[in-house]
Amino acid sequence: MTSVETASPVETAKRPGGRSAQVQAQVRAAVEALVAEHGCEQVTVPAVAERAGVSASSIYRRWGDMSGLLSETAVQRLDPNRPLADTGELRRDLIAWAEELASHMAKPAITSLLKAAASLTGGEETDCLRNRKAEAATLVARAVSRGEWAPEPQQIVDHVIAPIVLRLLFGAGKLEAKLAERLVDELGALAAAPAAG
Predict the structure, then answer these.
(1) Where among 45, 63, 81 does a domain terminate?
(2) Closest to 100 measured CA to CA, from 186, 179, 173
(3) pLDDT per residue over 56-77, tens digit each?
(4) CA–CA gap between residue 31 and residue 37 (Å, rounded)
(5) Which domain holds residue 95?
């Protein structure tokens, strides 16, 4: 019996390069290949499972449904454990982070996956959104620890990330230059404005 067979599911999932990572890579590769061949609308969980050589139940357990699978495949290269920009100032950190997300999501294949995922979602929060919220919270916590004022993480998602995604999913798919910088500055001005009495 190999160590993979005797390891607990938690241990296997956490070990880099273990069976869990291998299966996830196979599934994501299958999604990308099938989408390239047939378009997002024609791709199903059973088809992905067959192409990846795994059971459909494994996909449902890990990703929930096609929406979760498509959205996570679209942003898989935005590893939630990757280092985030650390310039010493929240404004510059947010701009760098938003530019990274916009640059990645604006790639035609990625935009296509995101659109398909959005059309299938049942309103549940995806891993993609949870990861972006966690990243916003990390940037805010870092700023606060430096003594900077910072908006709430949800404000960052609402006023910086949401407009980028909205443009990609419902606009022409092209983002204007300096969009990230403008959105961050608008958030700063909005958050700093006195509340209406």
Answers:
(1) 63
(2) 179
(3) 998 998 888 887 788 778 777 7
(4) 10
(5) 90-192
